[in-house]
Amino acid sequence: MIESRQQQSRLSQQFPLLENVAPEFRQKFFRSATLVSIAAGQTIASEGSECAQLALVFTGTVRVYKLAASGREITLYRVGQGDSCVLTASCIMSETPFPAIAETETDVEAVIIPSRQASEWMSESKPWSAFIFGLVSRRLAEVITVLESVAFHRMDERIAAYLIAMAAQGTTVNMTHHEIAADLGSTREVVSRILKGFEEKGWVTGARGKLTINNLPGLQAFL
Asked: Are residues 125 and 25 in contact, defined by beta-carbon separation less than 8 angstroms?
């Protein structure tokens, strides 16, 4: 239960749906909700686990990924501030196990809603159901993009596109080759070989744990 008026106000600012619901639903929401803190690097859902609750991320980032028997990983999407995990919502509604792995990338604050309430509210509150279906729409588009990238593009093209997307946050990418490989479903050796080729072209400069993008137009022209 979240009783603090200050916390309720902060949550309402982060999740606009709480401003658009009936007062009765707001009361139900705060009676059912629990605010928790989770340290970085924690697995919060494993493949095959029961979806007993839905987490709405208040601060921080959660990575949702698939792990192959070979040990290779591929990121499906990330859940950030003001968002929630669509796979968890889907599992709650369909009463099926979680089909991936969810792990905190940073320290996370999250609002936890029991699965029974999350499911019942779908028929009780239009703003709540709109929030959930909005998740489905956005994440489905992201996952389809991942599938298209894996199926139709070479790894060097995918890495170039990845770096171009990261450049929106700055020319320095603070990630290891292993982390990039895990995001893209490849191996560190393959990523390192391709990045070495990019360095030889003058597009990037590598250092321990980071890359500097020197020639963004060059990467863009490669695609």
From this structure: yes
What does 143-208 look like in DSSP terms, one character per residue?
HHHHHHHHHHS-HHHHHHHHHHHHGGG-SEE---HHHHHHHHT--HHHHHHHHHHHHHTTSEEEET
Residue 16 gets which letter from DSSP?
G
The 3-state DSSP composition of the chain as helix, strand, coil percent (nearest 5) reads 50, 20, 25
CB-based contacts of 178: which residues, under 8 Å, 6+ apart?
Answer: 188, 191
Other C-beta atoms closer than 10 Å to the C-beta of 189 total 10
| Averaged pLDDT in 10-residue chunks for the chain of 223 residues | 85 86 90 94 95 94 92 93 91 93 96 94 91 86 88 95 92 93 94 96 92 94 92
CA end-to-end span of the chain: 51
CA pair distance 57, 108, nearest whole angstrom: 7
Tell me the pTM.
Answer: 0.85
Pull the structure tokens for residue 115.
Answer: 């699965």
CA distance 96 to 99: 9
For residue 150, give Cα distances in angstroms to 161, 162, 180. 12, 12, 14
For residue 96, the surrounding DSSP H or E stretch is: none
